[in-house]
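User: Hey, quick favor. My workstation is busy. Could you predict this chain's structure for me?
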Amino acid sequence: MKNWLKIKPNHAPALCELGAVYFQNGRKAAAEKLFRSAVHISPELGRPYYCLGIFQASQLTEKYLWNDQTQSYLFFLYPEKEMRSADIMSSQLDGQWMVDLHGLQPVFRGDRIDKTLKTIEATCFVDKGLAGFAEPGKGPDLARYGTFPPEVNIVAMTYMYHGRRKLGLEIARRNMENIILGQGLGWDMPNLIRCDTGARTYGADYYQNMVLWGLQAALAGENLSGPCQGGGLVERMLTAGAKPVGQWPEVKATAAN
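Assistant: No problem, here it is.
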């Protein structure tokens, strides 16, 4: 499925014949906000050509892809072939996490963020954290696709940023408990796992799992700069790592750490 939006210059936005996928639209809108922020901070970067598909991704997503029946976004819409999918993807708000982590304005409507998070909780919440997809009326897809562990942590952080700290922490705990204690994959993290058994189905040594380090900021309700401040996680890690092993400080088992 093509994840493209086609916008005709000097014309009103039109959903293209090739369709649109909200997962990509949210990320595109977030990417533009991140770039605009960088240009604002560093004017010497200049202002390159903006793809209108990125510029208007949020607008098109809200206009065409919101699904009142599921209270979430359509997985995809393909008008030319009269195809659509209402499957509920647990990581559909990835673009929102991107801007939350960087302290920028939302890329989705605020009321729909809350509704979508409630839908994801009701349909995708499982013993291993979150299923990657759920079919409306039938429940989570446990084995056919499974789930994507780093995305589970991203969704967990999204809950934290939007007032559901306890739920977000529980999702992350279930995910990491399976990977580390259940599967023994702490040094060889997977790309995909089954949601019923937790077993790896694809991928090894997958570095997107390092998004786990963003949990410190999300738990504190801060953007990514928070742990980088004096006395924050980054400084504490560097200070501790510079000492001989026998002098490492004791780590207290609290949510903040």
